[in-house]
Amino acid sequence: MSVNKEFVRFDKVDKSYDGKVLVVKDLQLDIAEGEFITMLGPSGSGKTTCLMMLAGFETPTNGEIYLDGNAISSIPPHKRGIGMVFQNYALFPHMTVYENLAFPLRVRKIPKDEADKKIDKALSMVSLQGFAQRMPGQLSGGQQQRVAVARSLVFDPQLVLMDEPLGALDKNLRESMQYEIKHIHESIGVTVVYVTHDQSEALTMSNRIAVFNDGKVQQLSSPDELYEKPVNSFVAEFIGENNTFAGEVSDISNGRCKVKLANAEIFANPISVKGKGEKTTVSLRPERALINPSDKMDNIHKGKIEEVIYHGDHTRVRINLLGNSEFILKIPNSSSNLDIKLGNEIKIGWNSGDARALDPI
Amino acid sequence: MSSETKQILTTDGIPLEVSLKKAEKKNKIKAFLLVAPLLLFIIITYVFPIGDMLMRSVDDKMVTEMLPKTFKSMEKWDGQDLPPEEVFESFYFDFQKLIEEEREGKLSTQLNYTKNGFKSIIKKLRRKSKSFEEGNYKEQIMSVHRRWADVEYWRAIKRRAPAYTYQKYLKGIDMYENEKGEIINVSEDRRVHRILWMRTLEIAFFVTVFCFLMAYPIAHLLATLPMKYSNLLMICVLLPFWTSLLVRTASWMILLQQQGIVNDFFVMIGLVSDDNRIEMMFNKTGSYVAMTQILLPFMVLPLYSVMKTISPSLMRAGKSLGGTPFVAFWKVYFPLTIPGIGAGCLLVFILAIGYYITPALVGGASGTLISNQIAFHMKSTLDWSFASAMGLMLLSGVLVIYWLYNKLVGIDNIKLG
């Protein structure tokens, strides 16, 4: 079975609201059928605008969007057949849950008995059987959320858009809903385009993540690749925690470079630096740096502990290292790490392969 | 289980309920003192006047007080034949007292309301009664004028005996109680009030409809336009509030009169010929146009306040789920605006039903409303009790509409802002 790799295609899409500033710049993005893709980025990065263009509530200033091979810019929203979950759910407050779900079926003139079956199925999918006659106002936030998801799926769309659907929920509920939405996606195989500014949400749910900043996709890759191999400083900074050293490349050879800091030199993995003299920001994940390292590591330096924060399963330690007083270490909670005391000097080491020399901030 | 039945005590041993009441008491007094000035104001300016109006509309004490002895002696009279001598005698004494106090003129006016023809015979009686001799007053009074010997006139007097009457209410709907106590319509050429009531309802209804049709799109624009435009539009909507009602009405007169700007324009574009200008002033059209314009903000504001709360994502959801823009509007947006529609319509209708200045100025003969009639009786005929009766009928009409609205739509559904 061949999967349509270009089920949704943004082709050189530009969008500007005022004719002066481009909110989306030259967007080129393909979404495969059945994929769960997340648009992740800070607010104002253009991700919601992309979603609105796909849904038909905004028109691209330039370029074209294709859905299953057809240009859709001239098709009004109600003819696109795209399911959508809104940020504040947008349930119709004057209709019962049943009527809310029946709305898309009624406008499609689906006979009542068939519609009832679909509604039952959709409600059981979000485990809300028995809630059909409630009004949305009588439901909790999480339940309203599920109704909104069920409503966007009840008419069997091929594509569902979700615009920060979990933003209004509390942390625990948000996490359980993440899994629930992920399972629904896996079981029915619908294509989902999901917008969020919450990176952990994006990492847990998606097949691929498009990181947006400044109207552009900074990186489009799977969650693990995004975390392990960020291609630029913005992505490294935005996804997960990150220790940085700003410096200048002093030598580059054999897939390894030497970066000169203010008063030391470190080895790093040259990602976006090409030659000597270039300015760079070296990015290192906190869990890739170890205390009391073995001599095999090619970066070993001493630092002073400035702050110790107990987190239960691990301890976060802030260290003043090579002039960076914000260097964070995550140390697993074990009995061997008892010498972590405020003011102590400790040895810290990491492999140059994990320290990625990216573009300067 | 025992803890539920046992009275809960505070640490000091006082029952919790008592302690709570004590604690709440201060707050209650504070709250009451805060509303007290307004409460007093409402009682003085609203409850008292309406109570007074109610009393006035049914009050018929004047005649009762002027002829106390007469009515006492009339109690035994069956009203079939002429009253006995006793009644004539007490009437004579009552009447003499009135002459001394120079109040017999008022009596004649009052009795004339009940039956035409009293005025002249009371005047005559006053003149002749000076030379009355003691005893046999029946003969003497009857000889003054033949109407004094007519049992109908004595029945008319007896009808004024009760201190309270509902005659004014009957008059308000063009009915009256005849000599036999039957309630019948007044003759057809004198039925003015029913026409006025119907016209008032009709104008209020259509003004409400026109206001709704115009206000709905405006309110929608106001609620959806970006701030900088919607503020300007809001000022345009509120502008009438900042202009005197009289000025606005007068400007409509300038616009709509036969030699006015609108007619000039129609003549200019050839819609009507110069000698055939449209009459838009001093008739119903004038009332419709001016009242709709003046009452429009009262419809726009409640609608706006409701529309403002409707999230734009609801319409989007409606469309993304496959509804055409019309379906999304009709099934999603419109039902959510019903509280605003209810509030606006009720407000405009109730204001329109009692509208006074505008119809008085631009309504002419065919455009005046019941409130103008009330004012007429207050100022010109000085029949305050009749004016009060009609005022109360208007008030109860409004209450009936309110009740109907509550039955049909539900008053909880209303939203004024």
Low-confidence stretches of chain B: none
Run of helices and strands of chain A? EEEHEEEHHHEHEHEEHHEEEEEEEEEE
CATH superfamily of the largest domain in chain B: MetI-like
So how many helices of chain B?
20
Descriptive overview:
The complex is a heterodimer of chains A (361) and B (417). By secondary structure, chain A is an alpha+beta fold. Chain A contains 8 helices and 20 strands. Chain A folds into 2 domains: 8-233, 3-Layer(aba) Sandwich (Rossmann fold); 241-358, RNA polymerase II/Efflux pump adaptor protein, barrel-sandwich hybrid domain (OB fold (Dihydrolipoamide Acetyltransferase, E2P), Beta Barrel), CATH 2.40.50. Helix content of chain A is 23%, strand content 35%. In chain A, the strands form 4 sheets. In chain A, strands 6-7-8-3-9-10 form a 6-stranded mixed sheet, with helices on both faces. In chain A, strand 11 and strand 12 form a beta hairpin. Chain A is globular and about 75 Å long. The mean pLDDT of chain A is 85. Chain B is an all-alpha fold. Chain B folds into 3 domains: 16-58, no CATH class; 61-163, no CATH class; 193-413, MetI-like fold. Chain B contains 20 helices and 2 strands. The chains are: A alpha+beta (361), B mainly alpha (417). Chain A binds chain B through residues 55-57, 76-84, 86-88, 90-94, 103-104, 107-108, 151-152, 155, and chain B through 311, 313-314, 316-325, 327-328, 331-332, 335-336.
Task: Please give a handful of descriptors for the protein shown.
heterodimer; A: 361 residues; alpha+beta; Rossmann fold; OB fold (Dihydrolipoamide Acetyltransferase, E2P); 2 domains; five-stranded mixed β-barrel; 8 helices; 35% strand; B: 417 residues; mainly alpha; MetI-like fold; 3 domains; two-stranded antiparallel sheet; 2 strands; 70% helix; flat
